[in-house]
């Protein structure tokens, strides 16, 4: 379960990703599809994490992995969109680490 600063960081990263994808696809002819595929899942997870759902933090990490893959692919294949893609890559890496941090800390903590 994410508590305190981890949840706050996760909420901030999800909000930043939603805004990034809104800006990225603004004016695109497939804007509605981008809203449904990218922004809606992020917004739903943002609401669930804000409400304190432990499962939402896990799924935010999984979504972060998918967004990372997409962003790296676009950064490599579309030079004109590289700035948005690199920003999405950085935010999604932060999302994965923030969602995974409590589990990593518990796994590698020193035993007393």
TrEMBL record:
Pfam families: DUF2069. The chain crosses the membrane at residues 7-25, 31-49, 56-77, 83-104. The keyword Chaperone does not apply. Keywords: Membrane, Transmembrane, Transmembrane helix. It comes from the Bacteria. This is DUF2069 domain-containing protein. It comes from Luteimonas wenzhouensis.
């Amino acid at each position: 379960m994410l508590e305190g600063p981890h949840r706050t960081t996760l909420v901030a990263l999800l909000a930043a990703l939603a805004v990034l994808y809104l800006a990225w696809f603004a004016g695109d002819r497939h804007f509605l599809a981008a809203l449904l595929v990218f922004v809606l899942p992020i917004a739903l997870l943002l609401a669930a994490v804000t409400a304190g759902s432990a499962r939402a933090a896990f799924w935010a990490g999984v979504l972060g992995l998918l967004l990372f893959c997409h962003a790296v692919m676009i950064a490599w294949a579309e030079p004109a969109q590289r700035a948005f893609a690199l920003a999405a890559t950085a935010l999604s890496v932060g999302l994965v680490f923030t969602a995974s941090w409590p589990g990593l800390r518990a796994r590698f903590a020193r035993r007393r």
